[in-house]
């Protein structure tokens, strides 16, 4: 409960926090677990209280690209919008770091919007943040080289997990960047040669 109590919009509404816990189902997931698949019906909104999720978009040919991360205290705005409009999910949500998640039923989301102005403020803040995240992705794809994007992503992962040793395969990294594994392997080797990273079996160490 402490995590949600620290959210700016919830600090002065203990009642809202208590009701979030009252009506939500709390679950724990290990890294790598998929909590929401594309085209799945959305019956509850995930609110992360511990750990990190990543939200991914998959194309018909199987290629993937990372859209944004969801940290403790945040939720998935795509789930909000899909749930409120009774639409299926357009994204996949996967656990990046062992997570504890509250699942709030969709019908309670609408109820809280009517009863708590702070809840609506929270949704708008998330919407604004995710819009900025997506603009950053578009800007990176349009104007940055793959090696620049990869290094930015590695540092972002290290910041989120507070660990410079990243347990990730070349293929997973390629999927998140929306490029080929061979490209990622070649670029990582270049980064290793210039001392930026150290490579191990299924792990990358930022030096």
Throw out a few tags for this protein.
five-stranded antiparallel β-sheet; Jelly Rolls; Arc Repressor Mutant, subunit A; 8 strands; 207 residues; alpha+beta; 2 domains; 8 helices; three-stranded antiparallel β-sheet; elongated
Oligomer: single chain
Strand content: 25-35%
The SS-based structural class is alpha+beta
What is the mean predicted local confidence, pLDDT?
A: 91
Output the helix-strand order. Answer: HHEEEEHEHHHEHHEE
Distance between the termini: 36 Å
Overall geometric form: elongated
From the alpha-carbon coordinates, what is the Rg to the nearest angstrom? 18 Å
Percent range for helical residues?
Answer: 40-55%
CATH class of the largest domain: Mainly Beta
CATH fold name of the largest domain: Jelly Rolls
CATH homologous superfamily annotation of the largest domain: Jelly Rolls
Write the CATH architecture name of the largest domain.
Sandwich
Query: Tally the helices: what do you get?
Result: 8
Biggest beta-sheet profile: 5 strands, antiparallel
Question: What would you note in describing this structure?
Answer:
With 207 residues, the chain is α+β, with helices and mostly antiparallel strands. The chain folds into 2 domains: 2-141, Jelly Rolls (Sandwich), CATH 2.60.120; 145-206, Winged helix-like DNA-binding domain superfamily/Winged helix DNA-binding domain (Arc Repressor Mutant, subunit A, Orthogonal Bundle), CATH 1.10.10. 46% of the residues lie in helices and 26% in strands. The strands form 2 sheets. Strands 1, 2, 3, 4 and 5 form a 5-stranded antiparallel sheet that branches. A 3-stranded antiparallel sheet has the order 6-8-7. A hairpin with a 2-residue loop joins β7 and β8. α4 packs across α5 (117-143) and α7 (170-177) crosses α8 (181-193). It starts with a helix and ends with a strand.
């Amino acid at each position: 409960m402490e995590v949600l109590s620290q959210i700016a919009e919830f600090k002065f509404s203990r009642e809202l926090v208590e009701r979030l816990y009252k009506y939500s189902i709390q679950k724990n997931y290990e890294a790598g677990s998929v909590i929401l698949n594309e085209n799945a019906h959305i019956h509850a909104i995930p609110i992360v209280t511990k750990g990190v999720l990543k939200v991914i978009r998959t194309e018909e040919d199987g290629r993937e690209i990372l859209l944004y991360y969801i940290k403790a205290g945040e939720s998935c705005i795509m789930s909000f919008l899909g749930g409120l409009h009774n639409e299926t999910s357009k994204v996949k949500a996967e656990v990046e770091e062992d997570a504890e998640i509250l699942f709030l039923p969709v019908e309670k989301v609408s109820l809280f919007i009517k009863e708590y102005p702070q809840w609506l403020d929270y949704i708008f803040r998330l919407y604004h943040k995710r819009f900025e995240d997506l603009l950053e992705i578009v800007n990176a794809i349009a104007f940055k080289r793959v090696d620049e994007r990869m290094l930015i992503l590695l540092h972002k992962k290290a910041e989120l997990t507070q660990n410079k040793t990243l347990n990730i395969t070349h293929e997973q990294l390629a999927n998140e960047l929306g490029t080929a594994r061979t490209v990622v392997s070649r670029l990582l080797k270049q980064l290793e040669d210039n001392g930026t990273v150290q490579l191990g079996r299924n792990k990358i160490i930022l030096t």
